[in-house]
Design brief:
Length: about 350
Amino acid sequence: MEAGGSSSPRGGIDLGGTKIEAIVVDDGNTVLGSSRHPTPSTGGPPDVAREMIGAMKAACQAAGVEPGELQGIGVGSPGVIDEASGTVSTARNLPGWEGSFPLGPTLASALETRIAIGNDVQVATDAEFALGAGKAYDSLLGVMWGTGVGGGLILDGRPWVGRGGAGEIGHMVVVIDGARCPCGRRGCMEAYAGRAAMEARARRRQEKGMNTDLFKIMKDRGRTKLTSAVWAKALERDDKLAVELIDEAIEALGAGIASAQNLLDVPAIIIGGGLGVRLGEPYVKRIRKAMQPHLFNDTNPPDVLPAGLGDLGGALGAALLVESQRAERPPVAESSPASAAAGG
Ligand SMILES: [Zn+2]
């Protein structure tokens, strides 16, 4: 997919529930500059957009380019995405984002370049397929284990998005009438394995009198949430509650991912996301083991691999959108963002 000899750099932004990662890459997807900002935990979509603009400008500065010189900027976003209009709706892990917000036009106007938006989990999966741990396979399932648990699918070399809502592996039911999920339903895999749900469980158990260093570590690090680094530190210290909750998360991931595998029979499953990347191979190995009793085809399990691109996978995948969306359709209109931005 060579872009007609153009060699100007591209931008990529991974918009996560905890952090915003912005990068600038060259034609060979080498990172020229990057910047990471915390995702605002209060306010609304305009505040999140402002932070994204700040992160992208800082990445451009590190790369020695102006945002307006970029071929375009790809954005991997949670929520429901309208690629044509650049609108993002119901991004529940972001503050005040229940409605719909013209993220693409807002960024295009501030950064003076075209914006391509895709689903955060799908772009991270695309990046692993094109550049990372999934390079050797023609089909794979990406499981992004972070604030929530997202899934991305590549089948026979092409992303499978269904009618736009495919890949929601976090909401596979692993316990009928089980724990309440952030989505409002019960017994979803994410209710046990998503970082937001795990934090809520940790708070409840602490209130019931269980001792834990989790929130102490969080405060020492100046955080307001239990980040992946906080969980990793607590596990390192053998914190009883952290160990217990991670054990439950792994059980749930094993059941949910194995069930997906029973349906799809893909050759490879890539485990990424904030927690997946932070905890790495030792925990991927545990997930592999937790899947085994639930695999119907248990003599021929898939390869289960840690993401190869680390923390930058989402942003790299977002940068790949600039070329793929341009190849498929004309650029998003970049008009009148200011009046539209007042909504949301
Ligand atoms: Zn759910």
